User: What shape does this take?
Amino acid sequence: MKAAPGGARQRDRLQPKFARAVYAVVRHVPRGTVVTYGQVAAMLGHPRAARAVGTALSRLPRSLATRVPWQRVINSAGKISYKGDFFRPEIQRRLLEAEGVLFSDGERVNLKKYRWAGPSREKRVRLKVEL
DNA sequence: GTTCTGACTAGGA
DNA sequence: CTCCTAGCCAGAA
Assistant: This one.
């Protein structure tokens, strides 16, 4: 079956393709683990689009905040990058600690320990279909 | 079409 | 360690 052209167009107007792909990937990051912006970009096949991933997350609709674990995305230094005023840094940290991701050195997450390696081969296929 | 922006990042000072 | 820079990119204006 064919999807209604108008429907797809309307969806793209609400959320650009790349941004939707970012949300779809982040949705699969397991509880108690974290990923970096660059990692998400790489998983999408755009290894150099780390910055764009951050931009997309910054535009994450509040309505999706509960379904997309945005708190699990941090920068390559293991720190929280978000400095906005809606979901504040302390909120992000609290959410992570609540699921077992501990901070060392005051404000840093040990990526060696908590970084999510990514989906298995089979899941990668399923994920690609979702996008 | 062009220009500007920013939840990025690796590398140098 | 901190600070600054250039390169990068999708999205919005």
